[in-house]
Amino acid sequence: NLSPRQTCLYRCANDHTTEMIFSADAEIPVAWGCKQCSLEGALLDVEGKQAFETELPKAPRTHFEMLLERRSREELEELLTERLGELKARRARGQADATNS
Length: 101
Prior knowledge:
Layout: E1 5-11, E2 17-23, E3 31-33, E4 40-43, H1 63-70, H2 73-92
């Protein structure tokens, strides 16, 4: 026979829900790592709301988001066009290797 169990739900900042099953007499953690994105998820109550007032970590910024903080899209388009032109010119010369930039 299995011991009595309880199901707990956790939700992370990316709105992923993780279901965990614990023993009925176990101490339930207020946070649990998300199985999809590894952020910490907060324990939900029976109504699906956060059970405890804890601040969840924000989703990490992507490399592209940080890049957009430093350069405008127009600048990035210009750099991309310039770099692609250099690569095409190098390939035309038969120098596919980027070691001599």
